[in-house]
Amino acid sequence: MKILVCIKQVPDMESRFKPGAGGTWYDESDLAWRMNEYDEYAVEQAVQLREQLGESAELTVLSIGPDRVGEAIKKALAMGCDRGVHVQDDAPATRDPWQIAGIIAAYAKDQGYDLIFTGMQSQDRGSAQVGVTVAEDLGYACATTLVGFAFADGTVTAKRELEGGIKGVVKLATPALVTCQLGLNVPRYPTLPNIMKAKKKEIQAIPVAELLKEEPLAATVSFHPPARKGGGIVLEGEVGALADQLVGILKEKTAILR
Amino acid sequence: MKTLLIGEYREGKLLDSTYELLGFAGQLGAETAMLLVGSDSQLPACGGTLYLADASQCGEYNPDLHKQLILDAVQKENPDYVVFLHSSYGWDLAPRVAAKLRVAQVSEVIGLAEGGFEVGCCNAKMRRTVKPATPKAVITIQAGAFAPQQPGGNPSVQKVTASVMSNVTFTGYEPAEAKDVDLTRAEVIVTAGRGVGKKENVPVIAALAKALGGELGASRPVVDAGWVEHSHQVGTTGQTVSPKLYIACGVSGAIQHLAGMKKSDFIVAINKDKDAPIGEVADVLVVADVLQFVPALTAKL
């Protein structure tokens, strides 16, 4: 059984974002990068399935981007993926979700993957399109927003998270693609021995030009901070003084403290 | 300009969020037609054409078949925009429709902007303006971003159906976990967010809740990590609350969390990140480390 998990490397979301040159995406300098949080759940679920199936399974991790994404691929290898694919692209932020999905589908179409895992969305772009579009491109069964996953006899049983905490249970025959929601599992931390082992695993490099066949369908025309609505008071300073200030405000503005 | 709106229906009920689609079309000044996989006993209160498929035959969740129903309606209506809610139904279905039509999708639109649509990015800290490069486009709108419009009247119903081999089989709903804490009745809620750092620090937040006579709330990451039980979760997939005082401790303010608490009477956010989106709804934003500030505050009460 062949399994693919697709991951994106994104900035730490506590970073300060400012528009880069061109004004259509963030300035990438001085950012700390990490694996997209949703994708950590996708990798963990793929690794758990790999462990369930044993030696009959092979698990590949794929990421698109410049050299820095090698770190995210290495983390996934240390978590338990067998091999990596690095689609080398120095300008991934200029691709729209349609193109990113097209790149992944172009890579995957002749590989015969039975199951593909992705995060349900990226933390930075947040389009929630790429996974589903890959499934459409490949003609795979697809379910999104998984908070439960089981695999037996060629069938995936998935729990989709719906509004209000209700779950929808669906069954998918392989080949299938699922997109993973936060809380699906508990992503593992790579152990030191596994980090060392991962260094020996193969990472195949593919120039993006070999896979990119699609023109973008949408364009980002501006990247900017939200308009501040104002009204809120911002308190900064020494903790003890801040606490006194806040108690004063709560006494004045709410009926809770008197 | 013309829109095809995709209504929402679950567990035998037309969902109120359907009227947010009409609110969006209203802001665009667009004509509307609607497609709903629902029931003729639960029609939306609006005029215009309604393509109605019977959910008891077509299923409430059957993406391949619903996609075909939408593609059929697009053929008849030739809309400029096909519009979904950005919901578990919409974000699942919209990319399938966009891919088949080979048109742009703009996800989780929060407003109209000059030259395109305004969407959030970077965990809602930043914004993008996105412009479709195709003549038609698929749009999903953020829940709560467009005020619902209920124009009244009766739609002109055209019953539709489709027959499609589906490779996804829906087998049923699983109810939400029982809530042993009813946050909706609490006057004060003090919520622990990811910024509390680890499970061992949760009592610091619980102590403030207790000192204020309130309940402990939790954001999604804190529940996912197993630090606090799900029954305390505030947000779209937890409880929607509106206490007299809401104190968010180390909560960044994901949209799903904001949707669950922004109607609180008075909101205090404690966060070391001055740009965290929770600041957008807070009456007071205290820029500080939660683990230093919260005990200091509790001690003054």
UniProtKB/TrEMBL annotation, chain A:
The keyword Electron transport applies. SUPFAM superfamilies: Adenine nucleotide alpha hydrolases-like. Keywords: Electron transport, Transport. It comes from the Bacteria. Gene3D superfamilies: HUPs. The keyword rRNA-binding does not apply. Residues 23-215 form the Electron transfer flavoprotein alpha/beta-subunit N-terminal domain. It holds the Pfam family ETF. Belongs to the ETF beta-subunit/FixA family. This is Electron transfer flavoprotein subunit beta. It comes from Geomobilimonas luticola. The lineage of its organism: Bacteria, Pseudomonadati, Thermodesulfobacteriota, Desulfuromonadia, Geobacterales.
UniProtKB/TrEMBL annotation, chain B:
Pfam families: ETF (PF01012), ETF_alpha (PF00766). Keywords: Electron transport, FAD, Flavoprotein, Transport. InterPro entries: DHS-like_NAD/FAD-binding_dom, ETF_a/b_N, ETF_a/FixB, ETF_asu_C, ETF_asu_C_CS, Rossmann-like_a/b/a_fold. It comes from the Bacteria. SMART domains: ETF. Transmembrane segments: none annotated. The keyword Transport applies. Residues 3-174 form the Electron transfer flavoprotein alpha/beta-subunit N-terminal domain. Belongs to the ETF alpha-subunit/FixB family. This is Electron transfer flavoprotein subunit alpha/FixB family protein.
